[in-house]
Each structure stands twice: as C-alpha cells, then as structure tokens.
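Suppose you are handed only two things: the residues of a chain and a line of SMILES describing NAP. What would the bound structure be? This form records exactly that question and the answer produced for it, so the two can be stored side by side and reused later without any lookup.

QUESTION INPUTS
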Amino acid sequence: MKHLVVGASGQIGGAIYASLLEKQHDAVGTWFSQPAKGLRKLDINDRSRVFRTVKELAPDVIYACAAMTNVDRCENEPKESFQVNVLGTANLVEAANRCGATLVILSSDYIFDGAKGPYAEASLPNPLNVYGYHKILTEQHVATCAERYLIARTTVVYGWEAVGKNFIARLIHKLSQGQKVKVPNDQISTPTYNRNLAKALIELVNKESEGVYNLAGATSTDRYNFAVRAAQIFGLDARLIHPVSTAELKQNARRPLKAGLSLEKTRQELSTKLLGFDEGLQQMLKDEL
Ligand SMILES: NC(=O)c1ccc[n+]([C@@H]2O[C@H](COP(=O)([O-])OP(=O)(O)OC[C@H]3O[C@@H](n4cnc5c(N)ncnc54)[C@H](OP(=O)(O)O)[C@@H]3O)[C@@H](O)[C@H]2O)c1
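ANSWER OUTPUT
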C-alpha cells in the first residue's frame, strides 16, 4: 500500500508518517508553512496542485491531517477556518475519489457540547465553537461524498512533536523554565498519546476499516489533574500549576466541558491497546523525540 500523509509537519501527521516509515511502509508526507526534511510542500487550498500531486503519487490511502487547529484562532477567523478545514479537506475528498484512494480524516470531540461525555460514535453532535462546527461539516461532507473513508475522532493529543505546541509539550517547557501555569480543572477529556494514536489508526487502515471510529485515550481526566500527573512523571514542580475554571481563562471559543470519547466500538476491532493518560505519559517519558 502507498500512503500519503498530508500535514506530516504537524503533530498527528508527523506521528503517523514516522510510524509508517518505522514499519517500512511506502509513505510520502507534506508540509505547508514549516519545512521539514524529506517532506514535500502542499497547500490543500491549491486545488489543481492537490489533484496533480495525488495523481502523480497514486496513493492507496490519504491521511488528511492538514488543518487550522488553533480553536481560538478559528473562532476569530471563521472564514480562514472554513477555507482550510472544510474546503481544503473537500479538495482531498475529490482527489481521493479520482484515484480510488481511501481518505482518512481526523476529527474531534469538539463536535459535541460537553454536556455528557465521553461520547460514542453515534452520539448526536452539537458543537459550541467554530472549530467544532467546521469539523462536523467536514465529517458530513466526507461521509456523503468520499467513496472510501475512515473518520478517526480523537481528543487532547499529546507527545513529542517537532514544533512542541501540544498541551503537554508546552507544559513541560514552561515548568522546566520555572514558569507558573494556569490550567482549567473543569475540562474533562480522554487525552491521547500521539504515537499510540498513530499505531491504532494504521492498524484500522490496514484492516480496511471504514466509517467513524473513536481513537482516544482509555481514561478520562480533567486538564488540571492531567497536568499534575505529567509534572510528577517528568520530575517537574507541580506546585507551579494553578487550577482555574474555564470561565476564568476568558478564551474566545467556548469549550465542551464534559467531553472525551468512549472506546467500546473501537476496542472490538483493534488489537493495539489504547493507553490511559497515566500509561501514555509514562510511555512518552520513555520515548525519544
Ligand atoms: N491535536 C489534537 O488534540 C486534535 C484533537 C482532535 C482532532 N485533531 C485533528 O487532527 C488533525 C491534525 O491535528 P494536529 O494536532 O496534528 O495539528 P497541527 O500540529 O496543528 O498540524 C496541522 C498540520 O496542517 C498543516 N496545514 C495547515 N494548513 C495547511 C494548508 N493550507 N495546506 C496544507 N497543510 C496545512 C500544517 O502544516 P505546517 O505546520 O507545515 O504549516 C501541519 O502539518 C486536525 O484535523 C485536527 O483538527 C487534533
């Protein structure tokens, strides 16, 4: 199988690309604004370039990991979010259909309102913010128009990555510098270790699974508890972490509070063990960048 990872310079695309190469798969990855060695440049909004690239590479699987992922920025710049997250992904849908490839997209528990998570695949979406609204629009477009697709929903993905902008990478950086951090104690999710996510997703792809799957961590926690455990596991000073409510943070985009994803359906198909946050953090400590 030939794999094309669009957005391999990002956290999740990077983990998928590295995992594919580790297993000697035939894989090509792309970057957009952060040049990365071995990857080629691609803007998913450049429709003709997307079609040319996909035609030239003729992949069996396209992983659509390219997105505008800053939730507050999406709230402030909804047109840009729509352009990249919805229309850009739609270009990949068409390109995948033209070459008969399976399209894999990454979605989020932000499609839900956080009233009663963790959510199953069949739970009813009700996004609270622009990012979540654009993610569910994209899911619906993919489910309607892609000939073969896999929608992997995930949440609070953490681990080593080139840019180091995920929650745990930033936390480790700040605590290492002795900086205080404010962390919400009322946002519950099922944090997901990036290398574990990549391995599980590739297993589903190899099995030719189609449809919607939750691929997330196996245990729920609030952000504050998650941060404190990370500090303990990485030998950092947890007293620098201050619990606050989400309301106190005054973020532009509303957050689903009781979120996270349940794994009943996924566990029936997957032999890769999805790690709880404690195991995931321990594994991150062992793994190298
Ligand atoms: N991280 C999470 O906790 C999480 C949770 C749920 C769902 N997801 C979803 O998972 C996917 C990947 O997220 P991530 O955390 O890996 O994001 P990320 O680290 O922000 O990476 C985003 C990727 O998209 C690329 N990109 C941005 N605009 C592009 C464009 N116009 N054309 C082509 N590539 C473009 C970026 O390239 P450059 O960096 O080179 O500009 C980067 O490779 C997204 O769909 C996101 O919504 C993430």
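WHAT STANDS OUT: The first strand starts at residue 2 and ends at 6. Residues 78-99 form the longest helix (22 residues).
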